[in-house]
Design a protein that fits this description.
mainly alpha, single chain, 13 helices
């Protein structure tokens, strides 16, 4: 089992501090213990809008300054990375969560239980192909980030609040559709992994936890690839993050080893993604930002699975 050595961790920390967005520096520093995680709350305030949603390129591939559901999902995902939940006794945390939930449930309420991750104003700003506002992308995202956002609501909001009750009432609608599906987009796999993780943390819907995991496990076993170097393949950590079936253990071990081996000579992970077209010059700056953000995401995984020396 390979480990990220202390020397490489120190080198990575230096490179992140020099080449990343402030919010990514904050998260990395919180994960390694050199900054309190509450600093993330201050960073998120740079991206929040008056309507309570998030914009201003919080998600790197969407330069829209206006709020969108997907940008709220990204904010919640980052909060979850640092283990925030409804037990947090911080006024700024309460303000951020209340405003974000007001945006989600009152300003852009889900239609038939599902949020559209994109908003029309995306098309007025530089963005990757996935964030073009159109029907094709609505189908591409499917039940994502709806499932994840419902889980995050249960995790971040106290049970006495209306938003918590709305989320709890909506989850059965989403699960009914989930159980009936035979195919999933990569985004939906991410979203239901996230929902499963939130339900576990909240100790809620125990029977559904079991059914969700069984459904995901069955699907993942049929579709994952052993080709770790193929960026387009469904690699095990992409689709089985929270699945506990022992059948995935060897694949996860290999993937984590691959992550450590693939660190670039400059001390971070290179980014090889694409916006899918040559429409915006901002894609070049986005790729640079992704080096830092991607490094934070991978460092989080290595820490989660005990791969730090």
């Amino acid at each position: 089992m390979k480990l990220l050595t202390k020397q490489k961790q120190d080198d990575m920390a230096r490179q992140v501090s020099l080449k990343s967005r402030d919010i990514d520096i904050c998260i990395f520093s919180a994960l390694e213990g050199s900054l309190p995680k509450e600093m993330l709350l201050d960073c998120l305030m740079l991206y929040i809008n008056k309507d309570g949603g998030f914009g201003h390129g919080l998600y790197i591939d969407n330069y829209n300054v206006n709020s969108s559901v997907y940008q709220v999902y990204e904010a919640f995902r980052l909060l979850d990375m640092l283990d925030f939940d409804s037990s947090c006794q911080n006024e700024l945390y309460d303000e951020i969560i209340n405003k974000a939930c007001n945006y989600l449930y009152n300003r852009v309420p889900p239609v038939k239980g599902i949020w559209n991750p994109n908003t029309k104003s995306n098309n007025d700003y530089a963005h990757s192909m996935e964030f073009e506002y159109n029907e094709e992308n609505k189908k591409l995202f499917g039940l994502h980030p709806t499932a994840a956002l419902l889980g995050y609501t249960l995790l971040f909001v106290k049970p006495t609040k209306a938003y918590y009750k709305k989320a709890l009432a909506t989850i059965p609608l989403i699960l009914k559709e989930f159980y009936a599906k035979e195919e999933f987009t990569k985004y939906e796999l991410i979203s239901f992994n996230s929902l499963l993780n939130s339900l576990r943390k909240c100790n809620l819907l125990l029977e559904d936890q079991k059914k969700i995991e069984e459904k995901l496990t069955e699907y993942v076993k049929k579709n994952i690839s052993n080709d770790f170097k193929n960026k387009k393949a469904n690699r095990p950590l992409d689709v089985a993050l929270y699945l506990e079936d022992s059948a995935f253990d060897d694949l996860k071990m290999q993937e984590l080893d691959y992550l450590i081996d693939s660190i670039a000579p400059h001390g971070m992970w290179d980014y090889n993604g694409s916006w899918g077209y040559d429409k915006y010059a901002e894609e070049d700056s986005a790729k640079l930002k992704w080096i830092g953000a991607g490094t934070v995401n991978n460092y989080f995984l290595l820490k989660k699975y005990g791969r730090l020396e």
